[in-house]
């Protein structure tokens, strides 16, 4: 991607389990929980399919982040995607989220901090939003293994406000780095 200062271009939340979220002028991150007022906030998993499997598992998906550059990439294939459309809480620019190692810390000017836990697992709801989009969000690498492009998930390490225009400070974990996997 680019070498510009990573920044937040949009924030969103939704209190119900809908696919897309509602853009907001700001969101509040709550330590160990997620986004205040968002249906996916909680210590234990909140995604409905995961609750059915095991409601006691830890919530490694408190915050969903997507890079705005993805919207431009899929637009070349005729898809129209705007911030919050794919259910993300934070839309970024200038940061290759998918290349970050597990445990990367993203810090915002308020002191709010998110630890990246893994890749978003694209679901069939993506095709309900725009038919054919899910296939575009799952690529393959040179070995034929799936590559998930629908953003990353994280947990809130430090609470605080996040607003569009906020700079993002990236702190990598200690070596050796662990590649992101689906969470």
UniProtKB/TrEMBL annotation:
One Pfam short name: MOSC
Residue ranges annotated for the MOSC domain, each copy included: 22-171
Output the Gene Ontology terms for molecular function.
catalytic activity; molybdenum ion binding; pyridoxal phosphate binding
Name the UniProt record assigns to this protein: MOSC domain-containing protein YiiM
Organism expressing this protein natively:
Deinococcus soli
């Amino acid at each position: 991607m680019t070498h510009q200062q990573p920044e937040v271009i949009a924030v969103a939340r939704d209190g119900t389990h809908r696919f897309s979220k509602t853009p907001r002028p700001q969101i509040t991150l709550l330590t160990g929980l997620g986004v205040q007022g968002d249906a996916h906030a909680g210590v234990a998993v909140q995604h409905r399919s995961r609750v059915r499997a095991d409601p006691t598992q830890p919530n490694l998906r408190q915050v969903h982040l997507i890079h705005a550059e993805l919207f431009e990439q899929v637009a070349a294939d005729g898809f129209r995607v705007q911030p919050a459309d794919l259910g993300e809480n934070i839309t970024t620019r200038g940061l290759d989220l998918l290349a970050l190692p597990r445990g990367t810390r993203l810090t915002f000017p308020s002191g709010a901090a998110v630890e990246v836990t893994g890749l978003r697992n694209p679901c069939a709801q993506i095709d309900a939003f725009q038919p054919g989009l899910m296939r575009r969000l799952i690529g393959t690498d040179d070995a034929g293994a799936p590559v998930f492009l629908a953003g990353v998930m994280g947990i809130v390490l430090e609470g605080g406000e996040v607003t569009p225009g906020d700079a993002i400070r990236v702190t990598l974990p200690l070596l050796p780095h662990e590649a992101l996997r689906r969470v």
